[in-house]
Amino acid sequence: MILPQYDGNCGWYEMLGTVTDFPQLTQDIRVDAAVIGGGFVGCAAVRRLAENRPDDSFVLIDALKIGQGASGRNSGFVIDQPHKRDLELGDRELKRKMVHLNRTAIEYLETQISSYNIDCQWSRAGKYQGAVGARGEKFLDHYEQLLKNFGEAYERLSPQKMQDVFGTDYYSACIFTPGGTLMQPAALMRGLADNMPANVRIAEHTPVLEITRTSNGFILNTDTARIECRQLILGTNIFTAELGFLRDRILPVMTFASMTRPLSDAEMKRYGGQLDWGLTPADHAGTTLRMTQDRRIIIRNSYRYAHDYNTPQDMLPGIRQRHREGFEARYPALKDVPFDYTWGGASSLSGNFETYFGELESGIFASACDQSVGAARGTISGMMLADMASGKKTDLLSNMLEVSGNPSRLPPKPLLHIGVPLRMAMARFASRSEL
């Protein structure tokens, strides 16, 4: 069984310094429901369970410390719109439901951030999507047409506006959409964990090794304790298959990011752009760029088929150099600014681009295959899994079921080991002008 590992490289988490310690579970416990995985799905699910059922007891279990896994490793976007594929397919009403679900998730997170004063650089800054050259502009023009057809608000930026915002003339075209949110993901996850309802217990460094069904529910076996529960929610995403579910249906993909140290006052003058923005590539194989509120620039590109679910350390120097080249191409005046951190973060895809949501079997609920939009989608999925487990029927839950599907079966792993890296290499070559 492959378990999550923490490599000590994630800049978002390492910047937190000292965090609360939720002890490893060392004694057997009995609860009404257990949630495995302390990411966006798990944190939202256990909180919603506690809200729905204040007289019941719940445990949130994570193999690492909350914020060290995938939810604390993304680029800090909470995206309200569907991906372009979802904008292309389906009728207008289905797309409207997707957007409403994502925006409900943003409001749910925002309420907690405000209520508990969580310091996570939360910002309703919107999102930019940029193109570098002709290939990217073709994708961006298509995206603009999709936004028009769907009736979504957007702004096409002038060259001067791009220069003013990004501090670089590297981009040839850009579209701004106002609905997205930016944040510091590891700080958000820690803040959510630190402010759970009283009937939620958190156990970190407690990987679940086996799930056994009993006449009354389930027994979860760890190295140090057993957990008895009547219901189980899996927020384990790519590790769901390791627990025996959705095998051969989840494709784990890892993307990599590098983060600079904070820019000095002199470097900020040379930079000349704004703080607090995020740009995703019009060409999906291009480069994501962030400027944080605390003056750090983040650059993300490079992908790998993460069959081992974790970050191979020997790959990082080459990836870091690739990031360096992309950074200096955009900001030659900042070429002396070093990277503080380089890390990888995993997401999950499916062969048919469907996201799983629902009851895997009696008493076991799960959400998986986030299609690289895990913050909003994971949050609303966790909320709705909790409603489903609580027998609570709402329009939101109906919408969630309607926009979800069944991930298709993937080819055998030997073929994936050959085919997926080859396809990624071809995509990188095709998109080389957009990196």
UniProtKB/TrEMBL annotation:
InterPro entries: FAD-dep_OxRdtase, FAD/NAD-bd_sf. Keywords: Oxidoreductase. It comes from the Bacteria. It holds the Pfam family DAO. Residues 32-388 form the FAD dependent oxidoreductase domain. PANTHER family: FAD DEPENDENT OXIDOREDUCTASE DOMAIN-CONTAINING PROTEIN, SARCOSINE DEHYDROGENASE-RELATED. This is FAD-binding oxidoreductase. It comes from Marinobacterium rhizophilum.
